[in-house]
Write a structure and sequence with these properties.
The complex is a heterodimer. Chain A is an alpha+beta fold. In chain A, about 35% of the residues lie in helices and about 15% in strands. Chain A folds into two domains: about 80 residues, Ubiquitin-like (UB roll); about 70 residues, [2Fe-2S]-binding domain (DNA polymerase, domain 1), CATH 1.10.150. Chain B is of the alpha+beta class. Classes of the chains: A alpha+beta, B alpha+beta.
Chain lengths: ~160, ~280
């Protein structure tokens, strides 16, 4: 089985890797590149724990082959804060205690960031619909939605 | 498994033709990768079509939109003129999966997955969409409804794949609507679905109609008799009722965990009637 040579830009850094044709981008991020902030939940695109952006589009990395990522730009949760300074969404998640176990949190943060880039002033329903593909079994979502709306407000000001 | 990214449609067709084992076309991957993971399929070759020039474009040509096979659902949803002219197609796409899925999934993938419950298929059939196919014999086109022939099976021959979908522009005073029944509001699969496209005169008389049902038979159902009941009317209650009955008559669904034969049959009529009313309103009446 021949490996595929892939060149990407991940969180602004040029990164090259070799992968097997059937390896998912999620497995490569976690196991090869040790970017373990991206989580595996269901592995079938239902839970959103593995959310990343691929060429600016929010996707489930479990449903992307590593081989497809050639010449693409990828952003993961590791690229969200500016050094030690948290992104407003990250800070608001802490302020609102919008997480418990935290497995869904990286995916939700990446998804929420992608929403606010497209729509800086979303309604509560818009946030809920946008995040419908990010499952959380701890919080009941309420604090997550409040944190996203609060972060949006802060980012607009 | 081998992975190839085809540089042209002809090259992709050749890869598919020459593969002796199991091959799959990869665009959005939201069905293919799930099927691979669950062990439903074990492809020997994956042909990624996303690098083919033009296959990720939406173009407005003389009389129709051409949507490339690798255009994602969210890209169609974000297209202003498609939203204006084909709200039913857009709402069908908007019901497929989450934001993450919509960033990857494609209409052609939804069609070629050949699920009886595919959301975009009734909507595309209602607006007379055609697909353009490339294969060993060159190019050909056919209507969307000719592609799925049974659950999970398409009419595409070895070496063939769909490169684009053409949707004719809609005349003035026309519109469409898509409705489906699911137990949840989001992230679910249609138990029954209905799409209705109508063309009205400026006086508000229906001149042309197409009523299409999903998930009530192995493949999408065009209900010609239902359309006849509303053509020439102002979509009054009694015509809509007759239309619903024609929908009910044509249904041949299965009973499964999502719904029974009786439920699907009854709801098909209700959804068709409601979709017709929405389309009527959208057409400006």
């Amino acid at each position: 089985m021949s490996q595929v040579h892939i060149k990407t830009k991940i969180n602004g850094d040029n990164i090259e890797f070799l992968c097997d044709p059937e390896e998912t981008l999620l497995d490569i991020l976690r196991d090869k590149l040790h970017l373990t902030g991206t989580k595996e939940g269901c592995g079938t695109g239902d839970c959103g724990a593995c959310s990343i952006t691929l060429d600016g589009k929010l996707v489930c990395s479990c449903l992307v082959l590593g081989a497809e990522a050639d010449n693409s730009e990828i952003s993961t949760i590791e690229g969200m804060s500016n050094g030690e300074k948290l992104h407003p969404l990250q800070q608001k998640f802490l302020d609102h205690a919008a997480l418990q176990c935290g497995v869904c949190t990286p995916g939700i943060l990446v998804a929420a960031k992608s929403l606010l880039e497209k729509n800086p002033d979303p309604t509560e329903s818009e946030v809920r619909y946008w995040l419908a593909g990010n499952l959380c079994r701890c919080t009941g979502y309420d604090k997550i939605i409040k944190a996203v709306l609060d972060a949006a407000k802060e980012m607009r000001s | 498994m081998r992975y190839v990214a085809a540089k042209s449609a002809e090259e992709a067709s050749n890869f598919l033709l020459q593969e002796t084992g199991v091959s799959r076309v990869l665009a959005g991957g939201t069905d293919v990768l799930v099927q691979m993971k669950s062990g439903m399929i074990e492809p020997d070759l994956i042909v990624d079509i996303k690098k083919i020039p033009g296959i990720r474009n939406i173009t407005e040509l003389d009389g129709f939109f051409r949507i490339g096979a690798a255009v994602s659902g969210s890209e169609v949803k974000d297209h202003e003129n498609i939203n204006k002219m084909l709200p039913g197609v857009v709402e069908a796409l908007d019901l497929i999966g989450s934001t993450q899925i919509q960033g990857r999934c494609t209409m052609v993938g939804n069609l070629c997955n050949a699920s009886p419950a595919a959301d975009s298929v009734p909507a595309l059939v209602a607006v007379n969409a055609k697909v353009n196919i490339i294969g060993p014999q060159g190019e050909r086109s056919c209507n969307v409804e000719e592609i799925p022939i049974a659950p999970g099976k398409t009419s595409l021959k070895k070496g063939e794949f769909i490169v684009s979908v053409d949707i004719p522009y809609r005349p003035e005073f026309s519109s469409d609507a898509y409705l489906r029944f699911t137990p949840r509001t989001e992230m679910d699969i249609a138990v029954v679905s209905a799409s209705v496209a109508i063309e009205m005169s400026k006086e508000g008389i229906c001149e042309n109609a197409k009523v299409v049902l999903g998930a009530v038979a192995p493949t999408v159902k065009i209900v010609g008799d239902a359309s006849k009941e509303i053509v020439g009317t102002k979509l009054d209650e009694s015509s809509l009722k007759k239309m619903s009955l024609k929908c009910v008559e044509i249904c041949e669904p299965i009973s499964d965990k999502r719904g029974t034969v009786e439920f699907r049959t009854e709801v098909a009529g209700v959804l068709a009637s409601r979709a017709a009313k929405i389309a009527y309103k959208r057409a400006g009446f």
